[in-house]
Amino acid sequence: MKPSTQRQAFGLKILNAKHHAVRKLKAQGHQAEIHGNKFWNSSFLIMDHLKRHPPKQGLRVLDIGCGWGLLGLYCAKQFNARVTGIDADKNVGPYLQLHATTNQLAMSFETRSFDQLTKAYLANFDLIVGADICFWDELAHTVFKLIKRAHTAGVGQIIIADPCRTPFEVLVDKSERAFDQVERIDARLKRPVKATGDLLIVSQD
Ligand SMILES: C[S@@+](CC[C@H](N)C(=O)[O-])C[C@H]1O[C@@H](n2cnc3c(N)ncnc32)[C@H](O)[C@@H]1O
Q1: CA distance 160 to 42
Q2: What angle do CA 15, 96, 121 make, to 5 degrees?
Q3: What is this structure's pTM?
Q4: Which of 94, 104, 112, 187 minimizes the number of CB atoms within 10 Å of its CB?
Q5: Quick one: which of 135, 126, 114 has its CA closest to 197?
Q6: Ligand 1 probe mutation, 14, 16, 33, 34, most atoms within 8 A of CB
Q7: C-alpha span between 76 and 84 (Å, rounded)
Q8: pLDDT band at residue 2, thresholds of 50, 70 and 90?
Q9: Residue 160 near residue 185 (C-beta atoms within 8 A)
Q10: Ligand 1 pocket residue status of 9, Cβ below 6 Å
Q11: Architecture of domain 6-203
Q12: Other Cβ atoms within 10 Å of 124 Cβ, number
């Protein structure tokens, strides 16, 4: 039997690298350059958390370092959220659109880096999610500054998930010192894949 080129998880169809449509995009030259070459498991950890603690319907959600966009698409599907994904790598956009079409969902994509997200821009969102975006030392500071701007801009909640790499630990430490409502949650999944990591949640009323 041929191995499947797609799976179903959290109500979404997720295509893998062997799927003909994914291969076609690669052949057209859309090669992700900053690790956005696949869907990462930390996104599942945030989906699972949101399933247990559902946000209000219809929120404006920003998926930062969105890659293929499945976390944002999950928010669109389950919570009727109006979702934007940003990523510094323009090459991930076609993979996001492919998954949006495959799942019959809408999500917009913009090529922007974390540093380019101003307070005025961030003020347009109620919830910010980011999965596996803290993998280089300098990203701890970059993502911390972004959370600070978002907090000042009035964003209600920011959720970052990571398999606990060192820069993420630095980010948690800085956040615990800087903000009043900070949670760190140990997250584990057995299905659809075995995944472990932590969630950093910065909230305000
Ligand atoms: C490990 S992938 C995770 C992708 C997606 N969040 C997921 O869970 O599948 C990290 C993503 O962050 C993006 N990224 C890295 N540095 C960035 C930056 N400074 N600004 C915006 N996006 C960035 C990469 O292009 C990549 O798509």
Answers
A1: 9
A2: 150
A3: 0.97
A4: 104
A5: 135
A6: 34
A7: 10
A8: low
A9: no
A10: no
A11: 3-Layer(aba) Sandwich (3.40)
A12: 12
* pLDDT at residue 69 tops 80: yes
Token output for 138: 């300098």
- Residue 65 Cβ inside 6 Å of ligand 1? The answer reads yes
- What is the residue extent of each domain of the chain? 6-203
Q: Give SS3 for 153.
A: coil
Q: What is the pLDDT of residues 9-45, one digit of tens each?
A: 999 999 999 999 999 999 999 988 888 787 899 999 9
Q: Tokens 């900053």 identify what position? A: 34
pLDDT for 93 equals 97
Q: Which two tokens stand for residue 194?
A: 């075995």
Task: Return the closest-CA partner of residue 62 out of 84, 35, 34.
Answer: 84
Which of the four pLDDT bands, split at 50, 70 and 90, describes residue 1?
low
